[in-house]
Design brief:
Shape: globular
Helix content: 25-40%
Distance between the termini: 52 Å
Number of strands: 24
Structural class: alpha/beta
Largest sheet: 6 strands, mixed
CATH architecture of the largest domain: 4-Layer Sandwich
């Protein structure tokens, strides 16, 4: 029997491929389903089931496309009510996979339909738990995303307390835990960088599984410190619940190669967002006016979801040649299905066409220091408030990127600002968004706070000064 975790770092998401005696089960697949089918074909196996642990909020699952392409039924746990054909399993129901068994464990709390799947081998030994967003390594699923119909996060947390203790903590200590997410996901608050562990180890190390923990203590701990969820979460839930356009159609539409003239015409006629996915410093040296930079080599999909409020926004893509399909695919993972083409030949073709370009000035931390010796600089720190509070440049203003619309209102278009994040990725996103809105005096700091701190040229503090914007 083969159990393979297919982990996607950009989303901090784990999908699972389980093969036994020529039969395959897929758990929580990503939007693009071809890799699962190809893997099964290489194993001379057929996909028998598509299991979903819950209606995901942070990504669009590939469950519908995978079911249509393979004929494998989609399986949810109790209380799910999808808008498409699916098996709604009963708590304790079992599904045969070769000579192994997958048992349904209904574990409401993160959401009411949340379900774990227990893998049992042919000898009857419980070997692995696919825990979805119920149990993470070092954490449990946040209980605030499914508040509706009068159910509060405290009530969901209380339900989760029961699920963990009655269904999960009673399992043998050597059962391997395979969660749906790891560190970096917004579905929890304290996840480990490790992506697997055992039940026994989690009982020792996971704060939410303490044996002496009371219900009241649990509720307080899991509901404290929750940040607001990204705005695209409810939209992804709806797509996962009601259905979506085939990934094949999304790719066909998005992978239309457009000449510079056709690209420019499409931008003018449709009002599409021009999304430049190149490296931040490459973008700074030259880009199409009014384009936004969100680099593909970073937390691309989550930042798209956080910063582009309309999931049906039409998008025109500027990418390094050969990476266009990757961009369209990663956009679709969070439900942004309306890419309408890409610039053929990349930005170089735009340059060769002689069309207008723009730039953003970017300086080193040493240059920033030298400038600061002669004048008081307006420094904008676009990291999260928690990062800023941990340590920041004295008198720097905190304007988190994920609240860019509110931050923008407090900046003066006529003033010069020096913008940094942790490493240079987010600051260029921030600068490009404001540049497109008429803020022409923003200067990026290469390397971000790391370079600033490593230079040993700045006074730093962990005191939250009154220049915090948000």
């Amino acid at each position: 029997m083969k159990v393979e975790q297919i982990y996607t770092g950009c989303l901090a998401q784990g999908a699972y491929y389980i093969e036994n005696n020529g039969e395959v089960a897929i758990i929580d697949p990503l939007r693009e389903v071809a890799p699962y089918i190809e893997k099964a074909n290489k194993d001379n196996s057929s996909i028998k089931y598509v299991f979903e642990t819950h209606f995901h909020a942070d990504f669009v699952s590939g469950h519908i496309d995978l079911s249509k392409k393979t004929g494998a039924p989609i399986i949810y746990g109790p209380m799910a009510n999808p808008g498409f054909d699916a098996i709604i399993a009963k708590d304790g129901q079992e599904f045969k996979l070769g000579d192994a068994t997958i048992k349904v464990l209904h574990t409401p709390g993160h959401t009411m339909e949340s379900t774990c799947y227990l893998l049992i081998d042919k000898e009857g030994k419980k070997t692995a738990l696919f825990s979805g967003d119920t149990l993470f390594i070092g954490d449990v699923g946040r209980p605030d995303l499914a508040q509706k119909g009068g159910i509060s996060q405290e009530e969901l947390a209380s339900t989760l307390f029961d699920s963990l203790r009655s269904k999960i903590m009673s399992l043998p200590d050597d059962v391997v835990v395979y969660p749906a997410h790891g560190a970096g996901s917004a579905c929890g608050k304290n996840m480990s960088k490790e992506t697997t562990d055992t039940i026994g180890n989690q009982k020792k190390s996971n704060y939410a599984l303490r044996a002496d923990m009371t219900r009241e203590e649990f509720i307080k701990e899991v509901t404290t410190g929750l940040l607001p969820p990204p705005s695209y979460f409810p939209l992804n839930v709806m797509m996962n619940k009601q259905g979506y356009e085939s990934i094949d159609e999304v790719l066909t539409r998005g992978l239309q190669a457009l000449s510079p003239d056709a690209f420019e015409s499409a931008a003018n006629e449709t009002g599409a967002l021009v999304l430049d996915t190149r490296d931040a410093q490459t973008f700074a040296k030259g880009f199409i006016p009014n384009s936004i930079n969100i680099g593909i080599d970073g937390n691309f999909a989550p930042w798209i979801g956080a910063l582009v409020p309309d999931i049906k926004q039409q998008i025109l893509i500027v990418a390094e040649p050969g990476r266009e399909e990757e961009v369209v695919t990663r956009l679709s993972r969070v439900g942004y299905d309306y890419s309408i083409g890409y610039l053929e030949g990349g930005f170089e073709s735009w340059l060769k066409s002689g069309k207008e370009t723009d730039t953003i000035e970017s300086i080193s931390a040493d240059e920033l220091s030298r400038l600061g010796q002669n004048e008081k600089l307006e420094i904008i720190d676009v990291r999260k408030s928690s990062e800023y509070q941990s340590e920041h440049i004295v008198d720097a203003t905190n304007a988190p990127l994920d609240a860019v619309n509110e931050s923008m209102k407090l900046l003066d278009k006529d003033k010069r600002y020096y913008v940094h994040c942790a490493g240079g990725y987010r600051s260029m996103i921030f600068a490009s968004i404001l540049k497109a809105r008429g803020y022409d005096n923003l200067i990026d700091v290469k390397g971000g706070f790391k370079a600033i701190k490593d230079s040993n040229r700045f006074s730093l503090t962990d005191y939250v000064c009154p220049t915090t914007l948000l």
